Amino acid sequence: MKQLLIAITACLLLSAQMAFAKDQFLIVCAPLTQKNPSIQQAAKWYRDSAEKKASYRQVYNIGSAYVKQWVEQHHPKAKTWGVVLDIDETTLDNSWYFYQCASLAEKPAEFSHFVTIPQKSVALPGVVAFTRWVHQLGGYVTLISNRDGSYVDQSGITALQATIDNLKQQHVTFDQVILANNKQSQHPADKNPRFNAVIHGCYDEHEMVWSNKLPPHQVIAYFGDNIQDFPEFKQVAEYALPDNAPQYDKFGQGYFILPNPLYGSWQANPYK
Asked: Most buried among 16, 96, 149, 244, by the most CB within 10 A?
């Protein structure tokens, strides 16, 4: 009888493990989200084009050269400077969700639950080598995202912890992660308070959720896929500027932007 109970228990444990393993590959889409056929073409380019790979490698190669040159010119002490990177579609590739669901998880809670918590995102081309390179040169790497850091899944996993775990799984080198606080912030999409936290050490718990604090330090480069991933830049204002406006001179010289045809603040611009 005892041996029978042991055998039954072993079978149940094996079945549970197999079900869990199967769930790791199950992608669940946000409910009540309508499929958007137009996103399929963007997702195809993002997932299946050589141009996407080349673009990301190009940006991170240029960024690496810029950081190296800056260090050689300024001879800074270690841990007195750093870089800031966005996470989604800058550091981690979330296109698995868009491919499977043919839609966007547009609400912060939906994105947190269906994209962040599953930890299925992969490192984008060039970012692992770049972040390691910054560390080797003596700089900090801060990751700042509009992911909702106040979100806690039913299982008790926070969006912050899921993000950190995913980044570590993908071998991204970083010193801190700072997310938005959608529950308390009046403007959770505004990254400027988080940029200031890095530079001045002013961490406001009403505005952000962070993994840890770093000493205030100079940020020499920003990387993002949205114009609003850069200090004081807003889509409405920058879109209205002429192509040769001096504000764009910063790009390639401390500001480095990556292509994202899937989503972004550009979607609100008029189509003409």
From this structure: 149
Rounded Cα–Cα distance for residues 45 and 41 (Å) = 6
Contact by Cβ (8 Å): 89, 262:
yes
Instruction: Return d(Cα 133, Cα 127) in angstroms, integer.
Output: 10
d(CA 69, CA 13): 56
Q: What is the pTM of this model?
A: 0.89
Q: Would you say how long the chain is, in residues?
A: 272
106-164 tens-digit pLDDT:
788 899 999 999 999 999 999 999 999 999 999 999 999 999 999 999 999 999 999 99
**Which residues does residue 85 pair with via DSSP β-bridges, in sequence order?**
143, 223
With 0-12 CB in 10 A as exposed, 13-18 as middle and 19+ as buried, what is 267?
exposed
**Both tokens assigned to 66:** 């810029």
Does position 10 have pLDDT exceeding 80, yes or no? Answer: no
8 A C-beta contact, residue 205 and residue 181: yes
Burial 19-49 (b: 16+ CB within 10 A, else e): eeeeeeeeeeebeebeeeeebeebbeebeee
Number of H helices, E strands in the chain: 9, 8
Closest by Cα among 182, 175, 177, 148 to 164? 177
**Among residues 97, 8, 90, 36, which one has the least CA distance to residue 256?**
90
